[in-house]
Sequence to fold (182 residues):
Amino acid sequence: MSREKPSVYHERQRLQFCLLHSLNNLFQRKDAFTRERLNLIAERLVLDDPNKEKWTPLSLLFKPHHNALTGNYDVNVLIAALEGEGKRVAWQDHRSGAATIDLEDSGDKLMGLVLNVPVRRYAGLWRSRHWVTVRKVEGVWYNLDSDLAEPFAFQHIEEVREFLDHVMADDGEVLLVMNDDH
Fold:
């Protein structure tokens, strides 16, 4: 008896909207978040910022929490978006490595992982950071990086841990997205 391959939602990269794609991949549905919704969250964060009087005319394009043209949202937008959906974000301590992340989590407390990794493009001339989702779908952990042509299925949990340890060793951040209702 063959096991059917699970249907895994995977958005591909467009401009610098990797946070948008990462969130939709995390929630496993198109338009779980939209560009407009993330822009509103970013604007709300601006209104709540006590240092907004220090901005310059360039702040019209390069806003404090995102780039108005290309996206490139920051961690504050990620956290606010997830908290708006009843989720909690916890930073993984690099000193502990991936070994302390409960990837077996049978109680569904862990919704998934959002990674923020350094990237170099154009022969190293362009340095930036990129949002990536790692999530379990129907018992299988997937790398849902929007730069990948398709989701990458990890073969076993140790492979996920090795990948996460590599991310942290390369100056990446691992954020645990927790279902707050557990």
Q: What stands out?
A: The first strand starts at residue 62 and ends at 63.
